[in-house]
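Deviations from the work plan: none for this task. Representative record:
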Amino acid sequence: MSILSLRNVQKRYHNHIAVNNVSFDIPEGSIFGLLGPNGAGKTSLIRIITGITGADSGEIIFDGQNINNIRAAQIGYLPEERGLYKKMKVGEQLVYLARLKGLSKRDAKKTIDHWFEKFEITEWWNKKVQELSKGMQQKIQFVATVMHDPKLLILDEPFSGLDPINTNLIKSEIYELNQKGATIVFSTHRMEQVEEICEHIVLINQGQKILEGKVDDVKNEHKENKFKIGFKGGMPSGLTKDSFTVISDDHDELIIQIKPGHKPNELLGELMQKGVNIQSYNEILPSLNEIFINQVKGVSYE
Amino acid sequence: MNNIGIITSREYWTRVKSKTFLLATFLTPIGIVLFMAAIAFIFSRGSDDVKKISVFDPTDLTEESLNTRSNLELTYSDQSLDQLFSDYKEKKINGILEIVPFGEATSTTYKANYHSDDQLALDESMSLENALSRQIRKYKLVSLDIDEETLKTLETDVSIAPQTIESEKKITSMTSIVSGALGAVVSYAMFFIILLYGAQVMRSVMEEKINRIVEVLISSVKPFELMFGKVLGVGLVGLTQIVIWLVLLFGISMIAAPLLGLDPNSMPSPETLGLPPEAAAEVPMEKVNAILAELMSMNWFKILPLIILYFFGGYFTYAALFAAVGSAVGEDINEANSLTLPVMMPLMLAFYVGFAAMRAPDSTMAVWASMMPLFSSIVMPVRLPFDPPMWQIAVSIISMILFMLLLIWIAGKIYRTGILMYGKKASFKELGKWLLYKN
């Protein structure tokens, strides 16, 4: 079941189309990657989902209902450009933001206390935001995003500006929230993070959806039949090269690409026949980074 | 609606609790009182070095009774001018006032000589001239054989006493003066309050935009709620500040004025300013009483609520515009200037029209301006003490409220697009386009 479904969503600013007829589903309880190069329309799309701007046309279904009826209380949004009132005290500010999300004053205090204890930052309550370092402010912003226990969390570049320790801290919090049932949407162009964290992705470029699916499926769809062969001893000369091309040849490692219409087993059979001492035979799946670059380039050349 | 309440209360309390607010609110009245005391002090002084002046008056025109500023030490001497000059050279005296015999009694000009290398200060020479003038008047009365009493009867204090024909309101000769003064104060205050708090709304909008917190906020609330809550919150801060000021100003002037030596007698009187003594007539108690009676007779139950209504009408109209401007400006506060100009212009114009209306509250311009939105909130309060016809007030209020709603709506449209636009400030053409955006 999907927690969020976009159907033919379109958004146009006077000369250009920011979001062009985009449809996809975000499965409930998943960690979902919203990818795309700079200016692809990610932020526009997120703003439409969070209700900051409205779509020109199309439909967004959240948890079975039109999203216009729900929103604020159920979605947590961490914008890429972080922002807090600099001169307001941390505690007061979070209570204020929580109340705008529909929490009562008491509930807000309780849940903020809980998060502060968790992050061991209880002494920050009466500090002004401007007294905190950037990393500290990020933590506060994260608390502001999750404190009302939203069903859907939208995180735009959540780790930018964080040191490795805090990155891990936030990452484990995100996993924990996901375990408890929250659906996480990640917007980023840092592919290694996506590969590590996300189960599903959608790739947007120039306002259009380019591909969508489970990370493994996407990788399999875009594999290029590359294999890595590890062996001992010499490689026999006179291999029939009808079925593959050699990409690189190290002294005990060969990377090859099987030509279309041939099977990996053909080569394996030939190698075994010739008595090559094979140690490993692995398929190389493309990294998301490669897929991303290929896809984005492909589109812009069209 | 609930969100507007939360936003309003934050905007209100963060401001009211801030140090700047406390300082501005409590120090401004003290500052004003100190300022007034300083002005009184400055005027009461002038040159204070003692100057010794010998008066050489062979004809005894002055009867040895010139009455001047306290820092001028006049001595009447029988010595000859030459002897006095040697006194001057020995630095016993600062100067010599030579009284020249008065010529024809009908002459209307007279010159006395002051011998010294140091100039008299302006107020000193004025004071001497006034004293001389009084003496010459006495001299003329005698030589022209005029009776002082007869002369006094020539002067008549003329005033035109207004008498109403149908209206029940009692009008006295003080009515228009008191009403005018009251109108001026109200229009002045309106102008500054609208400007001050309108600009605060604009700064606050810009701050949220630059901070980027606005994106967090409007993922929770509608942009309109945010704008409206802000305008309302800041407006309430303004109201709070005004109330505190009124109370404080009243309290401080009651308590502190005597302590600071600020009693009406030490205020600049015409005499010390060098005006002819005729103008120095004390403000008689009966005049003070007449002013108070006039103030009491006004229909405050009608005027006060209307003034508050006009304050909110004017404030909301302009604050909405300021909020729209704030949202359209980029990161640089200097860019705001060209966009605030169109907002400032009607405000300034209204201010000047208001001043004109104080003098001629029933002029065609005043009547029309007091019914025109953008102007009415400043001009109509000026006219209120003059008791304008009911229908004009009604037209003025209805048009003001309708226009206010229209402007809030327009500002809301610009605001919700503007706060998400980063980079350079918007042109008016773009602002026009934003109005047409859906959502």
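The interface with chain A takes residues 3, 6-7, 10, 14, 18, 208, 211-221, 420, 433, 438-439 of chain B (CB under 8 Å).
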